C-alpha cells in the first residue's frame, strides 16, 4: 500500500501534473485497491475539513492586505523607512527580512501568512538591490519557518494538548532554539552579502531618516495594529489579519487615494486565485492524511523502526526524520496531531523530557514545511510570487544545511530547550 | 462558435466575480466580528461560518480559473528541462488525465452532497442546510475538468506553442533568458 | 450505507472479527482510554477472535467527519459527543442544558444508565440516522475557568465567554448576561492568555490537559452540566451481528459503565489536585454555595423553553420525560 501511494505520487509529480492531482487521486486509488468495501465519499468530506480551520483564514487575508499594500504606496514607504536605517549595512536588508519574518511569524502563528505578508514586499526590495530571486525566496521561506518555534506557537499548543505537556513551558523552551536559528540565518546573510558583493546604499543622513519616518508614520500603524492588537488581546491572530486588510484599505483607498474602490475586486480576485491554488493542496493533503491514518501506515512504519527499548538519541533521530518527512506532505498541525501519540510513549520510556520532545517535534514540523520536494510554504511562495517550482526551491540548500545542523544540536543537547525552565 | 465563446466569457465573468467577492466577504466577516466584539461586546455568531463557506467556495470555484491562467502549482523541475516536443506531448496528456480525475471527483463529491442532503444536517450557526456548503465542491471539480479539457484542446490546435492554460503560454518559451539568468546561483 | 467489518470466515468456530473504534479524544484522555479498555475486554472474552483497532482524534478529520464515517460504515464503533451531532439529531442537544442533571456526578451517571427517555426514545432518534447509542456516560461535570471570579450570574455581565456556536449554547450564556464568543479550539489558549476571551467551559481533565488553567486565574466548580459521551455503533452493522457477538458487545458496554465512571473520576480528581498545586500558574478554585447555584439555575430555566420551541422536533417530549425521571431519581 505504501509502495502504491508513493509510486502514484512520485510518477505524477515528476511528470509535472498539477500537485492537487496526485494528492487527491492517490488516496482514491488506494481506497479502490485496498478498501473496496469503503465508500469513496469519505474522502470528499476531508477536502472541506482540510480548509475549514479558522486559523487558515489568515492566509487569504494577509495575501489580500499585501496585495493592496504593494499595489499602493504603503509598502514602499515602509521599506524606504527601513532602508534609510539599514540600507548601508552589509546584509542589512536580508537580516531585516529574517527578523521581520521571525517576529511576524511568531505573532501571526502562520508560516504561510508570513511568507505572504512579509515576504511579498521584502522580496521586491531584495530583488531591487541586487539579490537573486531564489536566494530572496529561500530566505523568506526559511525565516518564516521559525514562526512555528517562537511563542505563541500553534504547533506547541497542539503538541501540548496531545501530550498533556504544559504549553507555557513549551513556549519558554522554544526561545533559545528560535534565537539560534535566527542568528545563523543572520550571520549567513551577512556573509552572503559580502561574498556576492551586494551593493550598499549610501548611509542616510538623520534628516533623510526623519523625512522617511514622517512619510512612513501611517504605514507604521501596521505593525502596531497587528502586534499590539494581538498582544493586548483585542484581536485574535486571524482577526489581526483582517484588521490589516482594513488598515491597508483605509490608507490606500481613503487617505492616499492610490487605489480606486473599483480596482478592489480585481485585487481580491488575484488574492482568490492564489488562495485557491494553495488551498486545493491543503484539501488534498487532508484526504491523503485520512487514508494514511485509516490504514494505520504511521503505526506500521514506526513499529518496525522503533523496535523494543530504543535509546533516547535513536528515538529523537526517528522523531526528527518522521516529522520532517510528514510535514513535507501535509500541514504541520495535522502531522503533530497524528504522529505525536505514536512516538510519545517510546520517547517517555527512553527518558526524554516531554518539553524537549515538543521542541524537537515543533522544530521538525517547521523545517519540513519549508523543505522540498513538498511543503506548504513552498506552495504558497510559488503561488504568491508566481514563480515556477524550481526557482522557488533552488536557493534552499544552505538553509536546509543550517537547519539540519541545528536539529542535530537539539538531539544531543536537550539543555538548549530546557535551560530556561 | 460565437455562442461557445459567449458562454466561455460568461463563465469567466462568474468565476472572477465569485473569487473576488468570496475574498471580500471573508475580510468583511473577520473584521466585522473583531470590531463588533471590541466595540459593542457582541460577537455575531454567523461570522465564522460565513467566512468558512466563502473559503470553500473560493478554493473549489478557483480550480478552473487557476487552470485557465496556468497557475496550479506543480513540480516543474524536470518538465522545465525537457525539449519543446516532450513538453508539447505532456501539455496534451496531463490536462487530459487531470480532467478525467476531476470528473471522477465530481461524481463522488456529488454523491457526498446527496448524502449530506439526505441526513438533513444543518450548519451550527446559521442553521442552514449543510449541503449548500458542499455543493460547491462538485461544481468546482466539474468546471475544473472542463477547463483542463480546453487546455488540452488548445495545445492540440496550436502546434507552435505550448500552453499551460488557455490564457497562459509556457514561460519556458517566453522568458528564456530571464529563467537562464536566475540559474547561476 | 451498511456496516462491513472485515469478517474472515474460517468455519463458524475459527471466525475472526476486525472492527474499528474511533474516538474524539487523544491517548490518555477519557474517551480513548475507554475504547482501549473496551477493545481489551472484547479480545479477552472472544479468545482473541475480536480485534478492535482504536483510533484517536486527529487523523480521521473533524468530529462531524467521524460521525459520518460511522454512519456509512467506514468505522463500526465510535465514542461520540451528542454536541457534534446536534445539527442532525436535534434532540441530542438536551445535554447542553444547564443544571438539568443533579449536582452529583454519581447520581447523574445513574440516570444516564437507567433513563428510558435516553436509552429508548433518544436512541430511536439516532437510529433514524444509522447511529445506535448503546450507552451514555459522563466524562465529568463541566466547570468554568475565567480571568475574573465567577460566583454568581452578575459576574457574567459583559463577560466574553468562549462557547461553541450552537444557538442553544449561545442562548444558555446570554441567559446569564454573558457575551458568548464563538472561537475555534486552536485559537483558544492564546485568546485566553491575551484576554481576547475571558473564560471557557470544559471538564477538569480537559482544562488540565489543554493547559487552559495556565492562562486563567479562576476555576469555578459550577457543575453546570456534564460532558456526556455516547458509545455508538453503526445500526445496520450492529443488527447484523450474530447473537453471540451482539450479547458480548452489549455485556461489555454495560460493564464498562462502572469502569468509565471510575476512570473519569480519577482523571478529574488528579487534574484538580495538579491545578490546585501548580504554584507557577496559580488558579483560585471557586466553590459555589447552594444559594449561588440556585441563582444560576433560576437564570438557566427559561432556556429549556427555548429548547422545547426552537430546538426539539418533538416539542420537548424527551426532555419532559427525562425531567420526570430525574425528579423520580431524586426522591
Ligand atoms: Na517540505
Ligand atoms: Na491559572
Structural write-up:
The complex is a heterotrimer of chains A (421), B (185) and C (331). Chain A has 24 helices and no strands. Chain A is mainly alpha-helical and 421 residues long. Chain A has one domain. In chain A, helix 4 (58-71) packs parallel to helix 15 (237-255) and helix 14 (221-231) packs antiparallel against helix 15 (237-255). The longest helix of chain A is centred in the middle third of the chain and has 31 residues, at 264-294. Chain B has helices at 2-40, 47-68, 84-119, 131-134, 136-157, 171-174, 176-183, and strands at residues 163-165, 168-169. Chain B has one domain. The relative contact order of chain B is 0.12. Chain B is mainly alpha-helical and 185 residues long. Chain B starts with a helix and ends with a helix. Classes of the chains: A mainly alpha (421), B mainly alpha (185), C alpha/beta (331). The A-C interface holds A 37-39, 41-42, 45-46, 49, 52-55, 109, 152, 154, 157-158, 160-162, 164-168, 230-238, 286, 289-290, 292-294, 296, 333-334, 337-338, 341, 344-345 and C 1, 4, 6, 26-28, 53, 55-62, 65, 68-69, 72-74, 183-184, 186-187, 189-191, 193-196, 208-211, 214-215, 280-281. The structure holds sodium ion (NA) (2 copies). Residues 213-214, 216-217, 281-283 of chain C line the site of one sodium ion.
SSE blueprint and pairings:
The complex is a heterotrimer of chains A (421), B (185) and C (331).
Chain A: H1 2-14, H2 20-34, H3 41-51, H4 58-71, H5 74-86, H6 92-108, H7 111-117, H8 119-128, H9 133-145, H10 154-163, H11 167-173, H12 175-195, H13 206-216, H14 221-231, H15 237-255, H16 264-294, H17 297-306, H18 312-329, H19 332-349, H20 354-369, H21 376-384, H22 389-393, H23 397-412, H24 415-418
Helix pairs in contact in A: 1-2, 2-16, 3-16, 4-7, 4-15, 4-16, 5-13, 6-7, 6-8, 6-9, 6-12, 7-9, 7-21, 8-9, 10-19, 10-20, 12-23, 14-15, 16-21, 17-19, 18-19, 18-20, 18-23, 19-20, 20-23
Chain B: H1 2-40, H2 47-68, H3 84-119, H4 131-134, H5 136-157, E1 163-165, E2 168-169, H6 171-174, H7 176-183
Antiparallel strand pairs in B: 1-2
Chain C: E1 6-8, E2 16-22, H1 30-45, E3 50-55, H2 63-71, E4 77-80, H3 105-114, H4 116-127, E5 131-146, E6 160-163, H5 167-174, E7 179-182, H6 185-194, E8 199-203, H7 204-209, E9 218-221, E10 226-234, H8 235-239, H9 243-277, E11 284-287, H10 290-311, H11 317-330
Parallel strand pairs in C: 2-3, 2-4, 6-7, 9-11
Antiparallel strand pairs in C: 1-2, 4-10, 5-8, 5-9, 5-10
Helix pairs in contact in C: 1-9, 4-11
The complex binds sodium ion (NA) (2 copies).
One sodium ion is lined by residues 327-328, 368-369, 371, 374-375 of chain A.
